[in-house]
Write a structure and sequence with these properties.
The protein contains 12 helices and no strands. It is globular, with a radius of gyration of 18 Å. The chain has one domain: Na+/H+ antiporter like fold (Up-down Bundle), CATH 1.20.1530.20. The longest helix is centred in the middle third of the chain and has 29 residues. Helix 7 runs antiparallel to helix 8. It is mainly α and 297 residues long. The C terminus is likely disordered.
């Protein structure tokens, strides 16, 4: 793991911990009684965005490595960052966490399956087809280190030392947000040699692709008639893919092909921007979830 990946992992773990300081077991019990909302969060990730991306690559005349990268990102599950931004945007955090956990498990099978059939059935990317072998330990490590452990630690502190958690959650939430913004700026500075006019078409592709994921999440949540708070969680789960996982696969399977790396890297930076923009907008018109205290981020 590179220093950059380690720093981002620590930032994400801190975000999850600060979110967990305000979660209670009642929140997860409520989600368990609403399986429709969980299903709504999975459909955009594993059906709508992958299929929509595949159809787009059949129509667009893009370089094969760019199309393959788009397909790979779409086939990856959501990341833990969506949990923090859902909380920050006053959505249903417990639903977001639940969907992330289920998606991480499903990805062990569905990510290689979706990627394989989509690349193989597209004439432009058929030559790029590889035997995709995802190491389960990678996803399990992400699920354990970035989600399960900080979530369990935060909920334990909240239950055992409520006064301490009340003092911690706002400073930690603010620190996490500042650290995230600093990471975005640092990423842009480190990749400044790539920030040329020639990169604009790829950035436009990433922006439209990401907007499609957010739109699929929104349309699914509306079609399944879930609450506004649940809708916010589902929308972010649909539009925030685990680009870090995609970059790892690209490094192992495709020898860090430059075009694929650029697409996945731009995704990793842009979905933070778009997700944070949604969360900031939603905070202007908060919708609180029943049985939950108002967040103190």
């Amino acid at each position: 793991m590179s220093l950059q990946q380690l720093v981002l992992s620590l930032v994400l773990a801190t975000m999850v911990f600060s979110v967990a300081l305000e979660l209670r077991l009642q929140d997860f019990r409520r989600v368990a009684t609403m399986p429709r909302a969980v299903v709504a969060g999975l459909i955009p990730q594993f059906v709508l965005l992958p299929v929509g991306t595949w159809l787009a690559t059949l129509v667009l005349d893009l370089p094969p490595n760019v199309e393959a990268a788009m397909i790979l990102v779409a086939a990856c599950p959501g990341g833990s960052l969506s949990n923090y931004l859902t909380h920050f945007g006053r959505g249903n955090t417990a639903l977001s966490v639940t969907v992330s956990c289920v998606a991480a498990l499903m990805a062990l099978v569905l990510t290689p399956f979706n990627f394989a059939w989509m690349v193989a059935s597209n004439p432009a990317t058929a030559g790029w087809l590889r035997q995709l072998d995802i190491d389960p330990s990678g996803i399990w490590f992400s699920l354990l280190a970035l989600l399960a452990l900080p979530m369990a630690a935060g909920m334990t502190v909240s239950h055992q030392w409520p006064r301490l958690s009340a003092r911690w959650r706002k400073p930690l939430g603010n620190f996490s947000l500042i650290a995230l913004l600093a990471f975005i700026v640092a990423g842009l500075i480190s990749q400044r040699q790539l920030l040329t006019l020639g990169l604009l078409p790829m950035l436009l592709i990433v922006i439209v692709h990401n907007a499609s994921g957010l739109m699929f999440g929104y349309l699914t949540s509306v079609a399944m008639r879930i609450s506004v708070a649940d809708r916010r969680a589902v929308m972010l789960e649909g539009g925030m893919q685990n680009s870090g996982l995609a970059l790892g696969i690209i490094a192992v399977q495709f020898h860090s092909d430059l075009g694929m790396v650029i697409i996945a890297s731009l995704w990793g930076m842009w979905h933070i921007v778009s997700g944070l923009a949604c969360a900031l907008w939603w905070r202007r018109s908060p919708v609180l979830i029943p049985e939950m205290e108002p967040p103190h981020v």
